[in-house]
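INFO  loader      accepted 1 record
INFO  loader      residues=288
INFO  predictor   begin
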Amino acid sequence: MPFNLAVVGQPQELTTYSYTWKDPVLYALGIGAKRDELDYLYEGKGPKVYPSFAVVPSFPAMFQALVHCGGNLAMVVHGGERVVVHKPFAPAGTLKTLATVKGIYDMRKFASAIVEMATNDEQGELVCTTTAQILFRGEGSFGGDPPPKVDSGISVPKDRPADFRVEEATSHEQALLYRLSGDVNPLHADPEFAVVAGFPQGPLLHGLCTYGHMVRHVARGACGGDGTKITGFEAQFRKPVWPGDTIVTEGWKVAPGKIALIVSVKERAERAERAETVITNAWATVQE
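INFO  predictor   done
INFO  writer      dumping tokens
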């Protein structure tokens, strides 16, 4: 299916997302929260909302923009995600998101759509901005421009070990739980669909689920468990993760409030005798 390049730069229709306290709790469970994170799981505590919840209200707007891009949606995978949090999420409320396709780029084997979204609360105040990179597998070489290179200025030091390391096993049902927060792509649930899409190992864990685990691990490793201190984060998804894999997040404090990150899967590191990273070019900013 050809791409609709005319969509680039055109604001999409505003989407509305209304939620109760159950939605951020379900999201927290979907990204692996445990009972010792009760502030995020019990309405009697608010609940607090993990900042990576930003991907939930923005998802309908992002998907709407992708539909207008053209391309084969059965072949899409998440390539990367950046979130900047401007104010903490309320435990419940109504959010409005405006999406704009910033570009559709040619990566030879892949095509890449960059979708930027601004999410405001009921008072009209900006809550978060999110930028998604979506890859269309097998749909590159269409004669478009290559994607621009953006340097965050936050990179992993090569001369010292990580300042924190958090290891956590996912459940075999993790993707089935995470998809209840809105991303119901059958690639994450249906074994037959996964095979047709090129993954004979079975349904994948959502890249944004691994992303959420990373953000929780930053909260634990750098913020004393308080995720509301995290003000921004970005990741590039390099390798697939499957439900049941053990996610390992390592973080380096490279400057005040800036943390460089790498995420790997423990089981594959053990088999290969070296770490196989699944998330790279990752960072987080936190309140000091």
